What we know:
5-stranded parallel β-sheet; alpha/beta; single chain
Amino acid sequence: MTHDAAQRGPWVLVVDDDRDMRDLARLSLEIGGLVVDEAADGTQALERFFEPIPPPPSAVVLDMRMPGLNGLEVAERMLSYNPEQLIVLFSAQLDSDCEDAALAFGVAACVPKHDVMKLPEILRHLMAA
């Protein structure tokens, strides 16, 4: 993503090790009018998050289960740097323990992957709050 693209408005970093799911999330968000960048794992997500240009994402959509760093570990690092960062945990296997842990340290919402087409609406609602 270019700096100019990020200047056009809110942008979302989608992090998922499943290429098909990243593509589906990207499509959903772009149809919803959001600028999207992506990362294939937690390490790549943190590299993109801490890049000086473009500015930090308006929101981060994080898969829970990825090789290396999982979504909660990535969220914790991002939130320790910026407690106001909007993060949505996005997983096919959400359980109440995972959701409770995520929400306890500042994740804004937990969304099951079958609701991928609702992501633009969910993110716009959270960004407006």
